[in-house]
Amino acid sequence: MEIEKKAKKSEEMEGEKEVKRSEPRRGGIRTLPFILANELCDRFASAGFHGNLISYLTQELNMPLVSASNTLTNFGGTSSFTPLIGAIIADSFAGRFWTITVASLIFELGLVSITVSAILPHFRPPPCPTQVNCQEATSSQLWILYISLLLTSVGSGGIRPCVVPFSADQFDMTKTGVASRKWNLFNWYFFSMGLASLSALTIVVYIQDNMGWGWGLGIPSIAMLISIIAFVLGSPLYKTVKPEGSPLVRLAQVIAAAVKKRNKALPEDPKLLYHNWELDAPIALEGMLLHSDQYKWLDKAAIVTEEEARDPSTTPDLWRLATVHRVEELKSIIRMLPIWASGILLITSSSHLHSFVIQQARTMDRHLSPSFQISPASMSIFSVLTMMSGVVLYDRFFVPFARRFTGKPSGITSLQRMGIGFIINIIATVVAALIEMKRKSVAARYHLLDDPKAIIPISVFWLVPQYFLHGVAEIFMSVGHLEFLFEQSPESMRSSATALYCITTAIGNYLGTLLVTLVHKYTGNERNWLPDRNLNRGGLDYYYFLVTVIQLVNLVYYFICAWFYTYKPVAETTERNKEEDLEQTNEHISSYNFKDGEEEEKRGFTKVE
């Protein structure tokens, strides 16, 4: 009877293989034009919308600087919290393709709403060119703004956590597969986003400042519509990964099972814990997680009792018994959290810098020629250009150079990359403080401190060094952070891991709002560090030095966490035959590469029984 069952199962597997062979191959490099076209237009729309929004709030809606800056960071925080909801929806039942598509439509609706409000005068207060005693926007006018921002926040919540994992779904992302490629998906993702941001910060911002906000917001709306069309057109080529239920439910099941068996004794041999390759196969396409010795109390969830061992062929109650792989999924998340949290204070300290630097640039000489001057918001192109060129140089020169000394395919680890980014960001903030001191000294020399609309005779290009350093820091910190979360998270939770990256921004933005509010409240009225109207009489340089101290404390915390971090152990799955870097989920799996730390052991494994 058992032999007949095995034979029948073998025939079913062969039938599935034949069906798979007859299906057209999906995924690979040919999908990138459609995915990146979507992302290029999406980021072009986002950058064109967000890049100069501080000017729209202060110049068109007549909001005070601190209030406008807090509105943007609160909006940024909400936009970064919604990806958690989007990730849960994508990983649980909707899948990444449909989550991106629906979320893009919601984002488009938000862009259209704020464009309409910018065109119709009824939705704005009267113009105030002097910026003195201005009539601020009414509550009804602000509600139109808030609804538009909320729609774009919800839309970005479905797009941001899914795009990078969906791109990675098209390729072999095992450690072996990544090492075999001469290019880094994350580096080129950030390069593409930088290209879109660069276009928006030059073209769209110029239109907003010189042709009006109707066109300035309408163009991003059109770009977003094009991105949706491009993404949907590529759907026949995409390789989609079927969602296998909520990852949060699996984590809850492990905790529940561990609590229920808290009084049970762990076996001395970890091999006696519960393993079920067939049950875990759909959530471990790239390899099974191996048992680790950390957080051993969670291992109790995988203890097999006598009652559960009586009938091993039945599917267990996962609220009472979890596999080692699922236990290790939870351990991986717990190990990641301290490193993930180190990004929060970095965002807190830098969340308002973009808004403040735009206001600084507005008071400086921005002329490139006697008849042409650069827009304040367009100064960000120097950071974007640095990031774009730096990503190429990082891949072409830094990685091969570092590889000679470390022997690692990526040159340095993602943790080392993040640490370098933290240090460069601190240097950038100190430089920003010194440049602000220089700007105010020139204003005092020409007796312009009390004129908030005056153009101080100092070139706006004094701001370039800090933009350059922030761009270099992003090459290391931002890319390294995302790469770390993607690599160290369980593969079935990669959308959720990307959402964690976004939540770092959310919490950091909210804490940034609290920091700016407290500084504005407790630094007095006459010499307030962050004044509402006249930045020349403020103490923005003191604020930058305060931010530097916060970043130094965060750097010490990060070094401690990185020193004690343990990389996840994984039994990596590789296939014999690859074509255009594609994986076929249910095809014959030829080998497992068992890797833990520096030791590697390879052995053959045939998936038959």
Structure, explained:
This protein is mainly alpha-helical and 609 residues long. The chain folds into 3 domains: 26-171 and 192-244, Growth Hormone, Chain: A (Up-down Bundle); 247-331, no CATH class; 334-574, MFS general substrate transporter like domains (Growth Hormone, Chain: A), CATH 1.20.1250. 63% of the residues lie in helices and 5% in strands. It is built from 19 helices and 8 strands. It has helices at residues 2-22, 32-50, 53-60, 65-94, 96-119, 139-169, 175-180, 185-210, 213-233, 247-260, 277-280, 306-309, 324-350, 353-362, 381-406, 414-445, 464-488, 494-522, 540-564, and strands at residues 287-289, 364-365, 367-369, 372-373, 456-459, 570-574, 591-596, 599-604. The strands form 3 sheets. A 4-stranded antiparallel β-sheet has the order 1-6-7-8. Strand 3 (367-369) and strand 4 (372-373) form a beta hairpin. Mean pLDDT is 79; it is low at 1-7 and 574-609. Residues 9-24, 600-609 have a biased composition (Basic and acidic residues). This is Major facilitator superfamily (MFS) profile domain-containing protein. Its main location: membrane. It is found in: Membrane. Pfam families: PTR2 (PF00854).
Computed over alpha carbons, the radius of gyration is 27 Å
Text of the CATH class of the largest domain? Mainly Alpha
Structural class of the secondary elements? Answer: mainly alpha
CATH homologous superfamily designation of the largest domain: MFS general substrate transporter like domains
User: How big a fraction of the residues is strand?
Assistant: 5-15%
Strand line-up in the sheet with most strands: 1-6-7-8
SSE string, helices as H and strands as E: HHHHHHHHHHHEHHHEEEHHEHHHEEE
User: Which sheet architecture does the biggest sheet show?
Assistant: 4 strands, antiparallel
CATH architecture of the largest domain: Up-down Bundle
Contiguous low-pLDDT stretches (5 residues minimum) are: 1-7, 574-609
Span between termini? 15 Å
CATH topology title of the largest domain:
Growth Hormone, Chain: A
Shape: globular
Number of helices: 19
Number of strands: 8
Q: In total, how many domains does the architecture comprise?
A: 3
| Residue share in helix | 55-70%
On the 0 to 100 scale, the average pLDDT is 79
